Amino acid sequence: MDHVTLPPELKQFAEAVVAAGRYRDVSAVVAAGVRLLQRQDEARAELQASVLAAKEESDREGYLTGDEVAERVRATIARKANAAA
Asked: Which of 16, 63, 80, 81 suits a disulfide with 58, CB 3.0-4.6 Å?
């Protein structure tokens, strides 16, 4: 791994979690941080793909307004409440 210089507050934090026994060394702390960044990037890409797919679907099939969605939710709740009664 290339040499990494951390800002003082991050270096202090990394050294503290190593001293607490949570990581074997500062490199392991940095690697954990990079893994979290990688997961965050992957989640962002998945969300972006999902939003794009939803937009493409709405372009093909149309979409509902917020009021239409709310009305459908209310109707479903009322229908289930009546069926349970």
From this structure: 63
Residues comprising the chain, all counted: 85
How far from chain centre, in Å, is Cα 46? 9
User: How many Å apart are CA 21 and CA 76, to the nearest integer?
Assistant: 53
pTM over 0.90: no
Q: Where are the domains of the chain?
A: 8-84
Q: What secondary structure letter does DSSP report for 62?
A: -
Provide long-range contacts, Cβ within 8 A and 24+ apart, for 52-57.
none
**Residue 23 gets which letter from DSSP?**
S
Measured from the Cβ of residue 42, the count of other Cβ atoms closer than 10 Å reads: 10
